[in-house]
Amino acid sequence: MGVAQRIPTSTQELPKTAAALQYSAQLHAGQLRKADGAPFIDHPHEVAALLYGAGAPDDLIAAGALHDALEQTPITAFDLRRRFGSKIAALVVTVSEDTRITCYAQRKAALREQVAAADDEALMLFAADKISKVRELRHAPPPRLALGERRKRRRQRAHYRRSLTLLRARLPDSPIVEQLGGELAELPS
Predict the structure, then answer these.
(1) Largest Cα–Cα separation, the chain
(2) DSSP code of 171?
(3) Do residues 36 and 137 make contact, with C-beta atoms less than 8 angstroms apart?
(4) For the domain with range 15-185, which CATH number is right: 2.40.10.120, 3.30.70.100, 1.10.3210.10, 1.20.120.1730?
(5) N or C: which end of the chain has fewer CB within 10 A?
(6) What is the pLDDT of residue 3?
(7) Are 133 and 160 in contact (CB under 8 A)?
């Protein structure tokens, strides 16, 4: 799958992004993606690259590199705030699920509600995350899926479609939102 655009990792050009990419690589070391078994770090790196390609500022690209840290690693929002500042930590918190909600549909609905109340940068981050996840699903090995796995994929697609509806309502002229629409259209049913 590969990232279309490489992010300059110069600390002069994008200092927060460079630090966030390095920290994210440490946090996600050894983790693999469920859909295709690729290194997990490919996902946060792709999200950051999508944001960079969309012309996002350093803080937002850095948040893209860190966006799964709260859900996938033992660090806390306090750790992120201390290391990267309030703005980046707040963006990551906004796009992080409440893992205490055990029902998938309720957890995803709560996440969409949380993002809907956020600013445009958080919405862009959410859109970039969804683009990467849809690509991951599209490029996963052809499924020989059990009934439970087919249901899970249907639920994921429904969440991505609802996310797109939310994003189109909040960021109607955003190229990154339209890119998500295109990626979703290419997802096999």
Answers:
(1) 50
(2) S
(3) no
(4) 1.10.3210.10
(5) C
(6) 41
(7) yes
Residue 186 CA: distances (Å) to CA of 86, 96, 106, 124, 180? 37, 26, 26, 20, 10
Confidence of residue 4 (pLDDT cuts 50, 70, 90): very low
- The mean of the pLDDT values for the chain is 90
Q: What is the pLDDT of residues 82-97, one digit of tens each?
A: 999 999 999 999 999 9
Average pLDDT over residues 61-77: 96
- How is residue 105 written in tokens? 């549909």
Three-class SS string for 10-62?
A: CCCCCHHHHHHHHHHHHHCCCCECCCCCCECCHHHHHHHHHHHHCCCCHHHHH
Measured CA to CA in angstroms, residue 155 lies from 71, 82, 85, 98, 150 at distances of: 19, 36, 34, 17, 9
Q: Which parts of 67-103 fold into alpha helices (H)?
A: 69-72, 77-84, 86-94
Q: Where are the domains of the chain?
A: 15-185
Do the Cβ atoms of 75 and 92 come closer than 8 Å?
no
- Look at residue 1 and tell me whether its pLDDT is greater than 60: no
Is the pLDDT reported for residue 107 higher than 80?
yes
This model's pTM is above 0.85: yes
